[in-house]
Amino acid sequence: MTYSALPVPSREHLERLDMAQLEACLLAQVDAAWQRCREVHPDLPQPRVWCDLRGKSAGQAHFGRGGLRFNARLYAENRHTFLAEVVPHEMAHWLVHHLDRGPRMRPHGREWQTVMRRLFARPPHVTHRFDVSRASPAPYRYRCDCRDHFFTARRHGLARRGSRYCCRHCAQTLVYAPLNNDEKSA
């Protein structure tokens, strides 16, 4: 059986909501997705929900904590798309994990893709396309022959202590390149 996409409030409606109302809307969307998953797996536990995820990730199914984590900043900046795409994405992980189809399932493997297509009527995109510049500032520039790469303070610290990073496109080792002349080699 194939379902239609979960209904999502209009963009205009979502833009008028404050943060408390947005969080309530997120919880309602997670609940709607969970209810749909229970049609396939009636014993599926209801996930708890946190809006404590930071950085570039929009969401995470956290099985150890027993729930789903979401990035509040990315949600606030991408309200409609977040509810339409990220919530089903994470709920699909939640369902597939609890189906217990074997120890070697890939996170975005065939089972997850099937849930995305059939249960949520969404294309099985592995990554989002949100602007993460405000959610995860990366002020340290590194260069290779083909482009600039921006590191977080943590990755920059690891690079300064000897970790080597290579470009995935040209395979050249990345070299620190301060953003302006006033910056000192950290």
Brief write-up:
The protein has 186 residues and is α+β, with helices and mostly antiparallel strands.
Description:
The protein has 186 residues and is of the alpha+beta class. It has two domains: 11-119, 2-Layer Sandwich (Zincin-like), CATH 3.30.2010; 140-176, no CATH class. Helix content is 39%, strand content 11%. It is built from six helices and six strands; from the N terminus they run H-H-E-E-E-H-H-H-E-E-H-E. It has helices at residues 11-15, 19-40, 72-77, 79-99, 110-119, 153-160, and strands spanning 48-50, 59-62, 67-70, 140-143, 148-151, 175-176. Strands 1-3-2 form a three-stranded mixed sheet. A three-stranded antiparallel sheet has the order 5-4-6. A hairpin with a 4-residue loop joins strand 2 and strand 3 (67-70). Helix 2 runs parallel beside helix 4 (79-99) and helix 4 (79-99) packs across helix 5 (110-119). The protein starts with 10 loop residues before the first helix and ends in a 10-residue tail after the last strand. The relative contact order is 0.12. The model is unreliable at 181-186 (pLDDT under 50).
